[in-house]
Amino acid sequence: MELGLDGKVCVVTAASKGIGYAIAAELLREGAHVVICSRDRERVAQAAAKLEEETGRPVALAIAADVSQPEAIHRLSAEVENRFDRVHALVLNAGGPPSGPFASFSDEAWEQAFQTNLLSAVRLVRAFLPLMRRAGGARIVAIASSSVKEPIPGLVLSNVMRAGVQALMKTLAVELGPEGILVNTLCPGRIATDRLRELDEARAAREGRSREDVQRETEALIPLRRYGAPAEFARVAAFLLSEANTYVTGQTLLIDGGLVKAL
């Protein structure tokens, strides 16, 4: 299938590793001009070098930007505008908040999760919307979590903020659809990233078990009996971000190997 991403300008946040990195790699392979960002300047530079080595294509821009900070988002959009003047695809991604029970989190922890995981999506869309309108239509994909369908124990901060992102995307799909901007939410289940490893290790520590034992137990609940690979997630994202997607908007799609049983 021809995705029509060749020469398109795509912005992927939190792309120095994990799902964001995998999406950036897939978009590069499809010929897109890919802009990546991450909080750490050295880490995003290393990611860009690794992406170029893996795909054989240059990263258009690699920018240090903490999406929880409004001024960083402003700088990011300004650099992209200066280089390209328009944006065809935007991936809203941010690192997950800490795990733990409800009673363990202060107002400050809730505020940080709000800034990083929900308000960042609001600000990114606001900042890039003029550039997407200039492109004459665009695609937005927000990375949330399977918790929007089935809350995950021990991840109360993520559960709440990801549900908010889903609601925002559904609303934007209605508002922006007439302008040819398609908006969807992609929800990873158990995708084998550093973040998932950390969560498995935290659970293993709480329960006095090995991480491998926790993983085996979780995999037994997944119909495909394994964790997903970031590249598997990225291929779905690339379709939704592409011109091949002409009629899918306002949807929440779980990439979870069948783990979530909700209708």
Automatic annotation (TrEMBL):
<comment type="similarity">
    <text>Belongs to the short-chain dehydrogenases/reductases (SDR) family.</text>
</comment>
<dbReference type="Pfam" id="PF13561">
    <property type="entry name" value="adh_short_C2"/>
</dbReference>
<dbReference type="GO" id="GO:0016491">
    <property type="term" value="F:oxidoreductase activity"/>
</dbReference>
<dbReference type="InterPro" id="IPR002347">
    <property type="entry name" value="SDR_fam"/>
</dbReference>
<dbReference type="InterPro" id="IPR036291">
    <property type="entry name" value="NAD(P)-bd_dom_sf"/>
</dbReference>
<protein>
    <submittedName>
        <fullName>Oxidoreductase</fullName>
    </submittedName>
</protein>
<dbReference type="InterPro" id="IPR050259">
    <property type="entry name" value="SDR"/>
</dbReference>
<keyword id="KW-0560">Oxidoreductase</keyword>
<dbReference type="GO" id="GO:0008206">
    <property type="term" value="P:bile acid metabolic process"/>
</dbReference>
